[in-house]
Design brief:
Length: 163
């Protein structure tokens, strides 16, 4: 029996991943690790999540100036994204408790975080309500909502596939 070769990974550069998110309507901006750069461009001060854009030329310029920048995604109405943030170790148990009380989460894009947690990405509801951030959702430790003027890192590799 012959050796089975693994499927090739489809890993994008950070710039290409940022452009792909923007093409899908998700406004992005460059981060230094998890924090905004002091200057987003030469002589242009950063304004954090307010710099998030889907403008292709701006994104190309941002990642030319900051080629190793992490991708930041502003949550909320501006991006149409709300994120369920699960922080270990308690968050994993709290999520199971939450799902047991209500129902399992629907299939959605899911990304592992740097601290071995998870981000679940959902479409921001278009129901006329304004959703707020929450730490310790329903009193459960490690389960947070990133819904308004928060920044998350959406991921860039094959491991981030989802809906």
């Amino acid at each position: 029996m012959g050796r089975i070769e693994p499927e090739p990974r489809n890993i994008l550069t950070l710039k290409d991943a940022a452009l792909k998110y923007a093409a899908n309507g998700w406004p992005v901006f460059p981060l230094h690790n998890k924090k905004p750069f002091e200057f987003i461009m030469p002589d242009v001060k950063s304004h954090g999540y307010k710099d998030a854009t889907t403008d292709i030329d701006a994104i190309r310029a941002f990642w030319t100036y900051h080629p190793g920048a992490t991708i930041g995604l502003a949550t909320g109405k501006v991006s149409g994204v709300i994120v369920l943030d699960i922080d270990p170790p308690k968050g994993h148990y709290s999520l199971k408790e939450l799902q047991g009380k209500y129902s399992p989460l629907p299939e959605t894009r899911r990304v592992s975080t740097g601290n071995k947690g998870l981000h679940y990405f959902f479409k921001y509801p278009n129901d006329g309500n304004t959703y707020q951030n929450a730490v310790g959702l329903a009193g459960l430790e490690g389960v947070d909502i990133r819904a308004k003027r928060e920044v998350v890192i959406p991921g860039t590799s094959e491991s981030t596939r989802g809906k």
